Structure formats: C-alpha cells, structure tokens
Amino acid sequence: MTYQAPTPSALSTMLDTVKFDASGLIAAIAQQHDTGEVLMIAWMTREALQETLETGRVCYFSRSRQKLWRKGETSGQIQHLHEARLDCDGDAVLLLVNQIGVACHTGRRSCFYRAFGPDGLVELTKPEIDPKALYGKQA
C-alpha cells in the first residue's frame, strides 16, 4: 500500500480534530508498519503533522531547537509515512512508517533499547551504526 495524501479540505478538517497541548504539541509514536516494532516517540506541531500528511515524509518538531525537524535531514535515516492514526482522545498520533536505517540518535534501530530489570536497566541492543557517522559528533 502506497501512502496517499488527503485532499486539502479533508486535511484541514482532520487537523481541526487533533487536540494539541497548551504548547501546541502532540505526542507522535513512530512504529515500523510491517513488523510492529516501536521505533521512537517525538513531538509534532500542527505544521509538522500537516507537512507529514501532505508529503508522506515524516516531520517532527524539535523542542530543543524550536523548529521543524524532518526525520533524516542530517542523518539520512528517513521515515516514510505508511499510515497515520489518531487515538481515541485525539491527543496522540501513531505513525506507521517505513524506517530507512536506524531511528535512534544513538545509532540503534529503536529508541526503546533498554528494559527495566530486577538489577537495573538492561541494554537490549547495541548500536547498528556509530552516532558520529550519523551526525559527525557523539550522541
């Protein structure tokens, strides 16, 4: 199934349904569309969600940089939208994506690579790529 962008009128109606928080943000969970693997959580503004739905390339909002962040623009680790879903309360988005490369800035496929164990955090996966190779600096 190839992603199909909504019509402009449908997009506007859908975006009006989303409940952004007081800061104008909504939590966005990225999940690999064919395996169900949870890759990451990030934040979106209305503009980021609109761009994502219009283009099919995932765009987030960077709270640290206070600007739109197109996944993969510096690392090459792009997310292509397969489907977007809004939760029952309208305050969280699930993005079913095709992740190209790793999703985590630590060089791992998923940001959820640590489990809470009886003796502390357990590292489940090692980096697949050195973060320096992704961004030119240590993560």
Q: Brief description of this entry?
A:
The protein is 18% helix and 33% strand.
Features:
139 residues; alpha+beta; Ubiquitin-like (UB roll); 4-stranded mixed β-sheet; two-stranded antiparallel sheet; 8 strands; hydrolase; zinc ion binding; cytoplasm; histidine biosynthesis
CATH topology: Ubiquitin-like (UB roll)
CATH homologous superfamily classification = Phosphoribosyl-AMP cyclohydrolase
Number of strands: 8
List the strand order in the largest sheet.
2-1-6-5
pLDDT averaged over residues:
93
Q: Per CATH, which architecture? A: Roll
User: Major sheet, described briefly?
Assistant: 4 strands, mixed
SSE run: HEEHEEEEEEH
Fraction of residues in helix: 10-25%
Poorly predicted runs are none
Q: How many discrete domains?
A: 1
The SS-based structural class is alpha+beta
Q: CATH class, anyone?
A: Alpha Beta
| Structural Rg | 16 Å
Cα distance, first to last residue? 35 Å
Number of helices: 3
Sum up the overall morphology in one term: globular
Percent of residues in beta strands? 25-35%
List strands and helices in order, with pairings.
Blueprint: H1 8-17, E1 26-32, E2 38-44, H2 46-55, E3 59-62, E4 67-70, E5 79-86, E6 92-99, E7 114-117, E8 120-123, H3 131-135
Parallel strand pairs: 1-6
Antiparallel strand pairs: 1-2, 3-4, 5-6, 7-8
GO molecular function: magnesium ion binding; phosphoribosyl-AMP cyclohydrolase activity; phosphoribosyl-ATP diphosphatase activity; zinc ion binding
Cofactor: Mg(2+); Zn(2+)
Function: Catalyzes the hydrolysis of the adenine ring of phosphoribosyl-AMP.
